[in-house]
Amino acid sequence: MTRMPFLAGNWKMFKTGSEAAEYVEKFKSLIADVKDRQTALAVPATALYQAVAAARGSDLIIGAQNLHWEKEGAFTGEISAPMISAAGASMVIIGHSERRQYFGDDDSAVAKKMAAALLEGLLAVVCVGESLKDRESGQTIDVLAKQLRGALTGFNPAWTQKLVLAYEPVWAIGTGKTATADEAQQSHAFIRSEVASLLGGQAADSLRILYGGSVKPDNAASLMAQPDIDGLLVGGASLQIESFVKIVRY
Ligand code: 13P
């Protein structure tokens, strides 16, 4: 099974709508010849419309960074899956460690958000990853297994094509400390084996698993050379066009 490489930027809380439009216009022309891999940008909710408008005419996927599982309701400050797709976006990140750490997104919230996104037809990028404490106490595998079980409970096999997983070790995010390609590969292989036991071998074989955590132009190629790393979820290095283009062209 060949899995199309997926290179996604997560801008976090950076860039206004007009900054997003300017970036996307330039970025899409710089990668117009790239046809053998998919590219995506998860932008702040306030920049969705402008990013989508700027991406028109290209294959660049625009997505949100979070959503609420209800379609609408009295949930001040939240946005829903139908709102994201009405803005023209087609992807959403779910369960990012910053959401888990600062906003209380637990495994059950992640499962509900994932179902809401997939029912809407959005591409759901579901993040898992251990903390430094988990890793140092030898809990990496247990934490990943628990997060995967939590997220994939109630998963409908028909959704497989729209699911992407991202392995983001918390200790490697924004710290400049990347997991070595070997460390990342070990976790990715474990995640794929867990997906096989939860969703079946075929799903595990076709599912893309991205690595995230201090990805830079100079480590992208060695990460992408690993058999179970199918893409990259890039934070800081996606904010500058030049470095993200280099990563896309790893
Ligand atoms: P950095 O690439 O800045 O470490 O962030 C990774 C990340 O959290 C992507 O979602």
List strands and helices in order, with pairings.
Layout: E1 6-10, H1 17-30, E2 38-42, H2 48-55, E3 61-64, H3 81-86, E4 91-94, H4 97-102, H5 107-119, E5 123-128, H6 132-136, H7 140-152, E6 163-167, H8 181-199, H9 201-206, E7 208-212, H10 220-224, E8 231-234, H11 241-248
Parallel strand pairs: 1-2, 1-8, 2-3, 3-4, 4-5, 5-6, 6-7, 7-8
CATH-wise, what's the superfamily?
Aldolase class I
Content-based structural category: alpha/beta
Rg measurement, Å: 17 Å
Main-sheet strand order equals 1-2-3-4-5-6-7-8
Q: How much helicity do the residues have?
A: 40-55%
Q: Can you tell me the overall shape?
A: globular
CATH topology description: TIM Barrel
Tally of DSSP helical segments: 11
Order of helices and strands: EHEHEHEHHEHHEHHEHEH
CATH secondary-structure class: Alpha Beta
- Tally the beta strands: 8
